[in-house]
Write a structure and sequence with these properties.
Blueprint lengths: L1 H4 L3 H15 L7 H20 L21 H10 L21 H11 L6 H14 L3 H14 L6 H14 L3 H14 L3 H17 L7 H10 L4 H16 L3 H8 L12 H18 L6 H12 L9 H13 L5
Helix pairs in contact: 2-3, 3-5, 3-6, 5-6, 6-7, 7-8, 8-9, 9-10, 10-11, 10-12, 11-12, 12-13, 12-14, 13-14, 14-15
């Protein structure tokens, strides 16, 4: 760790290799302690590599990774057994990244060295995240499934189910993604996880063209996500379905109660477009010929529409359709 702080990566990597050799010598009197050290080294590497994160409105497609709980108390217990080992008296454990030449291999080695370690589930989750980082989504999905089969009740399991659903959706495996998000809903009583599970379940429906099946999941996300960013996403999801069904008044009514909240930067461009599209359709349904203000509002939202959206391909299609109708073919 000192070498890592001094940017002496090659020397630190050499020591990490020595540590691995000691950890795999089962006849060594301190083999268990070396295994513990190696697992913690892998956890530090994973923490620096994937960075703990929880889903939010602006990072909705980012995989969920809990902050690792470094086994400080167990280290203190080791110190009690041997006076020469350092006693850790703090509950915090801030250490630099271990500069391993191959972080993915470090994680695999740690799982091989101590397959039944209390933090093995976390290491598997970090491994899946790193596989995804290297565009190896099918392998990441496989590792997450293996994690859930071996550690179904571990605290990181809810993150693994959620992350698996995200990766399955990115692979266009709509039905298996739906099953994963249903499992998220069933696994927990926490409103934030339930809201996220229902929201993504609705996304699997509209992304696969099953618009009618999206209504109930979005309604549930709206209910469980009260006062959170997911509530805004769910309202916009329902508005999209109503617009697809040719129901602009219902779309407008879905957005209206959250008008103040939808001015939040991460929601505003999408809500503004959906509202402008609904208002123009309502004006046309009323037989109005003078719809210049509505046309200008819609045009402005189209021109300012961001490149990335948490609402998926459906809203992009609606924007393209609106642009075409307004003669903006390019």
């Amino acid at each position: 760790w000192c070498l890592a702080r001094l940017d002496r990566a090659e020397e630190a990597g050499t020591l990490l290799g020595q540590l691995h050799r000691e950890a795999t010598r089962q006849e060594h009197p301190d083999a268990a302690f070396f295994q513990e050290l190696y697992v913690v080294a892998a956890m530090i590497e994973a923490d620096a590599m994937v960075r703990p994160s929880t889903p939010s409105c602006d990072r909705l497609t980012q995989l969920s990774v809990p902050a690792p709980e470094f086994p400080v108390k167990r280290w203190a217990a080791w110190a009690d057994e041997a006076e020469e080992r350092p006693v850790l008296e703090t509950d915090e454990f801030h250490l630099p990244s271990f500069p391993a030449a191959n972080p993915m291999q470090t994680l695999r080695d740690a799982l091989e060295v101590a397959p039944n370690h209390p933090h093995s589930a976390y290491l598997l989750l970090a491994l899946a995240c790193d596989l995804n980082r290297h565009d190896r989504r099918p392998t990441a999905i496989h590792e997450l499934t293996a994690l859930l089969e071996k550690y179904p009740h571990d605290p990181v399991a809810i993150h693994a189910v959620y992350d698996r659903g995200l990766l399955q959706l990115q692979e266009c495996e709509f039905d298996t993604a739906r099953d994963s998000f249903l499992e998220v809903v069933d696994r927990t009583v926490q409103p934030n996880w339930k809201a996220l599970g229902w929201w993504w379940l609705g996304r699997t429906r509209i992304d696969s063209g099953r618009f009618e099946e999206a209504m109930v999941p979005f309604e549930e996300a709206l209910r469980h996500g009260k006062g959170t960013p997911v509530e805004r996403l769910a309202a916009m999801g329902l508005a999209m379905v109503h617009l697809h069904r040719g129901e602009p008044r219902q779309a407008h009514r879905r957005l209206d109660p959250l008008r103040q909240a939808l001015r939040e930067p991460h929601s505003r461009p999408f809500a503004s477009f959906l509202d402008a599209r609904a208002r123009l359709s309502i004006a046309r349904d009323q037989g109005r010929t003078a719809v210049r203000a509505e046309n200008e509002d819609l045009l402005e939202t189209i021109l300012q529409f961001p490149e990335e959206t948490p609402l998926g391909p459906m809203i992009v299609w609606l924007v393209g359709e609106s642009a075409t109708e307004m003669g903006l073919g390019s």
